[in-house]
Design brief:
Two copies of one chain form a homodimer.
Chain A: H1 4-20, H2 26-33, H3 38-50, E1 55-56, E2 64-65, H4 67-71, E3 75-81, E4 96-103, H5 104-107, E5 115-119, E6 135-139, E7 148-153, E8 156-165, E9 168-172, E10 188-199
Helix pairs in contact in A: 2-3
The structure holds a DNA duplex (30 and 30 nucleotides).
DNA sequence: TTCCTATGCTTACAGACCGACAACAGCAAT
DNA sequence: ATTGCTGTTGTCGGTCTGTAAGCATAGGAA
């Protein structure tokens, strides 16, 4: 669909944009390709626009947009803390393992929700179909009865179902092999599960 | 952290950017807020930059960037077809239910991989911990033994494990209640599972 | 063959767009 | 009393897009 030269132009636009966050001006394109005029750059941009891979806004500087980016929903960046979220409650930012960026409508949360993610270790939630290695997205809010929550117990975070019975909250593992946990003193809930991301696929056992 | 006025500025930048894909010039900011000069806009931008919520590039037009966007990994847009992917094999784009946008490193796939997503219906893969309602991301490529695949059978797409035994491929459900499927004629594999997204959380049964 | 269109360039110029700076000022909080 | 916030007037000079006019090559259609 695109000619070689046009592909080179497009690659340059993408590189420039991902490095600087901006789009190049026609003269910057000119210099990069060694054109003697910016008109050459303009005509290429026109060609790219006609083929639909970029959009231009007349009269405005650096006014190039990739159509995908325009149509895209708003993206949120969710920090991934390790398995251990201890200290989280103290609002101290601890080591981030990385970041998960995803559009809000796929996640189904409001844009202003405070969220973070944890990587699951162990099989205590296996009956809720959450397996070791899964990445769980949690929202920082009050838990409701039956929510799956990340709770801080003995300095370590675990994922359990939050159940209230007779006005008494306790934590329930979704695995027959694990006992229920009734809080000794107080129960610190770090977040409520709102989504799960599994990367790869459970390979054959 | 931000003053009211600065928040208004920032909101305007976000709105403008999400609508047009561009950033406003200082004079556009001026007009929007009714300033008598663009210097007012500039000084606000400087304040926002000092507080770290935007970055500016000196001397370039419309050269404002949100830091989150710069740090963000590359995002891919994955079309979500319905439960039924029939016709997919024919390369005909059928109704899209929506789009899943996520960064490539969280997904763990190469940027040029051809991917699509399907919403899972039924419980035939329950033992692989894939439940009804899950959104499965698939890559269009040749399956390997043990991969979980979307396959076209009788005009409907199902998710099964792809197994080769004695040079004979067949499809295996991950649920004791379902039988294995040996292809009557040929087996059309539409994609290989590379990730899974579960929205919400399996509420208490 | 001939016409026509798409590609890929050049030179030259107009004119608006745009960021930067200098200098100043009222107001609030520390 | 100084700093930060929120503005004003005015100007300078480079940036940036747009347009006009032209040239060469290649491929498809008439």
């Amino acid at each position: 669909m695109l000619t070689d030269r046009q592909q080179q132009l497009l690659d340059y636009l993408r590189d420039y944009h991902s490095e600087t966050g901006l789009m190049p001006s026609t003269r910057e394109i000119q210099n990069h390709f060694g054109f003697a005029s910016q008109t050459a750059a303009v005509s290429h941009l026109r060609a790219l626009e006609k083929k639909g891979v970029i959009q231009r806004v007349a009269g405005k500087a650096r006014a190039l947009v990739f159509p995908e980016e325009l149509e895209r929903e708003e993206i949120v960046d969710i920090p991934i803390y390790g398995h251990i979220a201890a200290g989280m409650a103290a609002e101290a930012e601890q080591e981030q393992e990385g970041c998960l960026s995803i559009d809000i409508s796929s996640l189904g949360i409001p844009r202003n929700a405070k969220t973070f993610a944890l990587r699951v270790r162990g099989d205590s939630m296996i009956d809720a179909h959450i397996v070791s290695g899964d990445c769980v997205v949690l929202e920082f809010r009050e838990p409701r009865n039956g929510d799956i929550v990340a709770a801080l117990i003995d300095g370590e975070t675990t994922l359990k179902r939050f159940v209230i019975q007779d006005d008494q909250p306790y934590l329930q593992a979704e695995n027959e092999m694990y006992p229920d946990l009734t809080p000794a003193r107080e129960l610190i809930i770090q977040g409520v599960m709102v989504a799960l991301l599994r990367r790869g696929e459970g390979k054959v056992a």
